[in-house]
Amino acid sequence: MTVEQILTVEQMRAAEQRIFDAGTPVFDLMQLASGRASEWVRRIAAGRRVTILCGPGNNGGDGYVMAHRLSEAGLKVQVVAPDPPKTDAAQKARDLWGKSVVSSGGEVQGEVFVDCLFGSGLTRPLSAAHFLLLRDLSERHQFRIALDMPSGIASDTGALLNEKLPRFDATLALGAWKFAHFMLPGRNKMGVQRLVPIGVEAVDGAAEPLRKPNISAPASDAHKYTRGLGVIVGGAMPGAGRLAAEAAMRGGAGYIKLARQGEATGDNPALVETSGDLEPVLDDKRTRAVLVGPGLGRDEKATARLTAAISSGKPLVLDADALMLLKPDMLGENQPILATPHDGELEALCKSFAVIAEGRRERALALARAANIVVLAKGPDTVIAAPDGRLRLARPAPSWLSVAGSGDVLAGIALSRLANGADPFHAACEAVWLHGEAARHCGPAFTPLQLAHSVPTALTKCL
Q1: With contact defined as beta carbons under 8 Å apart, do 115 and 150 qualify?
Q2: Half-sphere exposure at residue 124, Cβ-oriented, CA atoms within 13 angstroms
Q3: CA–CA distance, 387 with 187 (Å, rounded to integer)
């Protein structure tokens, strides 16, 4: 069974070293990895001519073995290697290839280009010669495949080490996913991604991809309170709270209340609205979870309502304005809390909690530890971090989610999952998956209300 995990370069090297220590020679592992990757290349090539660019290290060695396998399978293969092998395994791989190698693109002709120049360990920009060769070959081939990681992308961050790197049609990750496979801007250069298993065992503390949740239907004797009562603390701008409620009512909870700051309108018979003092609804023993933030405002009344929500001691979802008002001394001890910041809110929270870190992933992890809360750092490469170091990275959701109100829908789904009994970390994971799946169901150019109404369709896929 393949273990799906996301490893840093250091973690991957350690994982490979454990394979070597168990008795597998480096060259044998290279043959295993390249052999499995070559099957993907063979299928994509479908008889077309293949050009493989090999670097001096073991990633280049993978390329030589791949060339040998593809040639044995009957494909026409040309190898380009600007530098000689620098490792024993890479030299063995070149000897295995045993055919001509050219040092420049020159007159090379082919239809499928495979980048094996440098793998996931690269931390500095490509040299001018390597960069120009990579660009030239990629531009002269119809299909482009990267082995493990496109050359010129930082594996641990997804940063582009060179400008104007080519875009690939497919990337074959060897052994484990790397962070760049999930993170922008590098992810946008990789095309379709496939994981090639090579026997890497589970690594303690490794990040994981976000997976489709397994959600159970209500029990045969369920009622609205056993399925969970969730309360949304409204504020000065009622629209956002009502939008969150539309999503929350469709996310699996049995009962959603909107505690409005102004008078209840009662124009939606499916939504229970209250007004006036927050204490009765927050102190209700049947209330399982509370959402505060969408449309809250940032004045004294908003601060008082946020304080009341936190003081209730109930599991919380903190979103939008609540994140801008939140201060360290407001938090209760060991209270289950899920915060859902976008980048601007994440930066503000890091300042409030004296967190110094670069990048969404590191900021989310550091903030989760400092504040003892789960952080759902939302964006085009969403990260979910827990205080104990657990980390989940989401696959890309439709870019049509970049619409006002989308975050309110996400917060409402999270409230519903929290009220339904999930802990903050799993509620965050379920909400992010359901949010993205609902967007896929909507198609292009949807409204946030349409998104909220598509949540049941997404939920159906988890049952």
Answers
A1: yes
A2: 3
A3: 26
Q: Is a pLDDT exceeding 70 seen at residue 109? A: yes
Distance between CA atoms of residues 216 and 333, nearest Å: 31
Residue 177 in this model has a pLDDT that exceeds 90: yes
Where do the domains of the chain lie, and which CATH numbers do they carry?
6-206 (3.40.50.10260), 229-460 (3.40.1190.20)
DSSP state of 113: E
Q: C-alpha angle with apex 91: 88 to 92, nearest 5 degrees?
A: 85
**CB contact at 8 A, 79 and 106:** no
| C-alpha–C-alpha distance, residues 339 and 367, integer Å | 10
My answer on whether omega of the bond before 209 falls inside 30° of 0, hence cis, is no
Sheet holding 192-196, edge to edge: 101-102, 77-80, 50-54, 112-116, 143-147, 170-174, 192-196
User: Please, which residues have CB within 8 angstroms of residue 331's CB and are 6 or more apart in sequence?
Assistant: 310, 337, 371, 372, 373
- Rounded to an integer, what distance in angstroms lies between the CA atom of residue 122 and that of residue 138? 19
Q: What is the pLDDT of residues 47-92, one digit of tens each?
A: 999 999 999 999 999 999 999 999 999 999 999 999 999 999 999 9
Angle, alpha carbons 176-177-182 (nearest 5°): 175
Which contiguous run of DSSP H or E holds residue 244?
helix 238-248
Of the candidates 355, 340, 344, 349, the residue with the CA atom closest to the CA atom of residue 394: 340
Residues in the chain: 463
Measured in degrees and rounded to the nearest 5, phi and psi for residue 85 equal -60, 145
Decide the pairing of beta strands 391-393 and 383-385: antiparallel
Identify which of 114, 57, 46, 126 has the alpha carbon closest to the alpha carbon of residue 88.
57
Tell me the longest C-alpha to C-alpha distance in the chain: 82
Condensed to tens digits (0 to 9), the pLDDT of residues 240-271 reads 999 999 999 999 999 999 999 877 676 788 89
Structure tokens at 55: 């670097």
Residue pLDDT, tens place only, 395-415: 999 999 999 999 999 999 999
The helix or strand, by DSSP H or E, that contains position 102, with its residue range, turns out to be strand 101-102
Pairing of strands 229-233, 287-292: parallel
Residue that the structure tokens 């915060």 belong to: 339
Q: Is the Cβ–Cβ distance between 364 and 383 less than 8 Å? A: yes
Is residue 393 helix, strand or coil? strand
Contacts of residues 326-329 at CB distance under 8 Å and 24 or more positions apart, as own/partner, are: 326/352, 327/352, 328/352, 328/353, 328/371
Q: Report the chain's mean pLDDT, rounded to a whole number.
A: 95
